[in-house]
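Teaching assistant's notes for section 4

Start the section by putting this record on the projector. Ask students to predict, before seeing the second block, whether Protein big brother will look compact or extended. Collect guesses on the board.
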Amino acid sequence: MHAMSDPAALAGMLPFDSIGLYEQPKPRFIFKMPRVVPDQKAKFESDDLFKRLSRESEVRYTGYRDRPPEERQMRFTSGCREGHTEIAFTATGTNLQLVFDHSPYNNRGCDFQKETGKAHIVSRFIMNGVCVRWRGWIDLERLDGAGCLELDEERAAIEDAALRDQIERYNQRLRDFEDKQRAYREHGEELRAHSQVHAQRCHQARQPPHPGHPAHPHAAHPVHIKPHSQGALIS
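Reveal the predicted structure now:
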């Protein structure tokens, strides 16, 4: 564990942003990475990798390469009965981890009865944002065979609908947040305007009279004093 004074440890830490008393928390939207691309069919038909893998070509079982052939054959058969196996396209070197449904009552994933000495496998998965289906066979003795990728249109339609629903829910959350933010700003502006008017009124009420104006509310009337009349001097 790195010490807190270690610069390397501090460099890997994320900054911590504290939230003030009157500060609104920042929105946290968790948008899951889409499982598929918007146009799966176009990518499947135009991507170079899908073009190569969509042509039927040689494949090999790649599990337990360091074990004897007899044990590898047993491991392959056992894995198929459990619903999984590992293969690779010989021409391109592309490795695939195949998972499928296999049970005594369901041979849609792996069928040992279709052809003697071979395991016919169908595995559905998403590769590079495209719903695909690997279809092929493996020889139970040589542990090689042939297969190719196909566009799984049924699964693609389901994933497309889920993607549109996910995007719509995310956009709705954004709209709801923007509406709340707008209402919060309008309410804040009303409170600030009310506070300014109240502050102005309080300031005017506390303001003292101007020095040039008389303190008495009524105007002062001038007082006229008549001079005393001087009497005649008697000699």
